[in-house]
Amino acid sequence: MHVPTGRTRLLAGLADPEDSIVNSSPWYWLLLLPVLMLVISLTNLIFLRRPSLDSEIFTESVVVLLPVRNEQENIPQLIQSLKTQMGIRDLTFNFLDDNSSDQTVNLIEEHIDGDPRFTLTFGAQLPEDWLGKPFALQQAFEASDSQVVVVIDADVRLKADALVSAITLMRSRQFSFISAYPKQIAITWAERLIQPLLQWSWMSSVPLRIAERSHNPAFAVANGQFFIADRAALQAVGAFECVKMEIVDDIALARALLKNGFLGTVIDGSRIAMCRMYQSWPELREGYSKSLRVAFGSWVGSAFAITLLMLSGIAPLLLGLGGYAIIVANRAICARATGGRIVDALLHPLSILLLTYLIIRSWKMRGRTQWKGRLV
């Protein structure tokens, strides 16, 4: 009698779950992590906070901090979307140019076109004990005095009610900070494989309604693309000086706020904001090579993360179609909740393999990665 082995048995399992390579019950522990993540995703799908689209006029003062360095491709559309913001009586936009060498400054001046809500200042030379973005943000923060502070990346585009709806949610729930997670625009295959993992990583691992009531920094979820905070809370932690040497400054800032007794959360910002972080595979590869090793803290942390990625996104395939279905369902739920492409969930195992490569590459490139012309 022929007994199928190796690849033959695995393919047979994918074709017919009854003949899976690991049909015996002891192997079903492989589903524990994927099923847990599926439950968390379903719960977050129901309870994920979303800004109201019919907010009233907001009367507190609001400043939007916009540190820019060599952003000439983004400036025209960025300013256009900022000018459409409505529903806030006292709103200002503070551009701080971080020693750009392209046409960023000229384009800012051209597209501001005398609008009194906008200011443009020029950053000082970068000190040795600061990274560029935190230093630029600190300078812009110190030049303002508004009660609510918003940070927007140059590649973010806002709907007209984005600011008022997100800030109103923060105030109504008495949070000290929120991160309104924009819809991630992904066009190339590399983007479509990797970018949805940003939302998947927290949608399927952090029970958000529990996290928003906890000061545990392990629950910190944030995205610096669109981050809002109460000025007093920022001042209490030293503002951006507390993350002066942090490459992943958004998560670090959220952790600092939580440690100091402030509460905050991530909200679905896909209906009010969008962002295309990277335009190509080389750009995406370099961007993640800069940040992934820092995100996981150490080689041990990275190895642990890779193990979890394998257990949640690859190992369940050994259980055939049932395991694959749970993997895809989890990703599809995350896409549904955050404005992503549901069909891309079908390629989640490939996404996991590519992300694993990027984590390893991030460590191999340590000390050699440049971003915006600076070594990080």
TrEMBL record:
Classification via InterPro entries: Glyco_trans_2-like, Nucleotide-diphossugar_trans
GO annotations of cellular component type: plasma membrane
Coiled coil: none
A GO term for molecular function: glycosyltransferase activity
One Pfam family, short name: Glycos_transf_2
Region forming the signal peptide: none
Membrane-spanning parts: 27-48, 294-327, 339-360
Domain Glycosyltransferase 2-like per the UniProt entry, residue ranges: 64-235
Localisation: Cell membrane
Entry keywords, A to Z: Cell membrane, Glycosyltransferase, Membrane, Transferase, Transmembrane, Transmembrane helix
Family matches, as PANTHER family: GLYCOSYLTRANSFERASE, GLYCOSYLTRANSFERASE 2-LIKE DOMAIN-CONTAINING PROTEIN
Protein name: Unannotated protein
